[in-house]
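During the no-cost extension, the postdoctoral fellow (Dr. R.K.) reprocessed legacy sequence entries with the updated structure-token encoder. One reprocessed record is reproduced below for audit purposes.
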Amino acid sequence: MVEPLTEAWIQAMDAAASTHDGLLAATADMALVIEYRVADGATWHVRLEGGTARVITGPADKPDISFTTGPTTAAAIADGTLDPLRAVIDGDVLLSGDPRVLVDHRAVLDGLGDVFDALRHS
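Re-encoded structure tokens follow.
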């Protein structure tokens, strides 16, 4: 298993997302960029558009939505011991952008979560 929140982890997430047929099919008619920032740590973004799914190191130029948190919360979300929604509700994750995009693309985001869950158990 790759250590979460490292460059190797981001690369493994990209490999899993960019080759997942179900996820790629679900992104055919959409465009969404989600950025993740860990205070004093990693920053990456997920780009879902036109039948592609990529996880890219570094900040996005114009994310539709972004999440910022500390390293402890990020690690708990990454290893699956903390529900991301619970972290947002509790104020442990700060949200920037329009949260309606999450509702609009919920099925695709659930699929993305399944892809990354499989990575946790590989």
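The first strand starts at residue 31 and ends at 38. The longest helix spans residues 106-120. The remaining legacy entries will be reprocessed before the final report is submitted.
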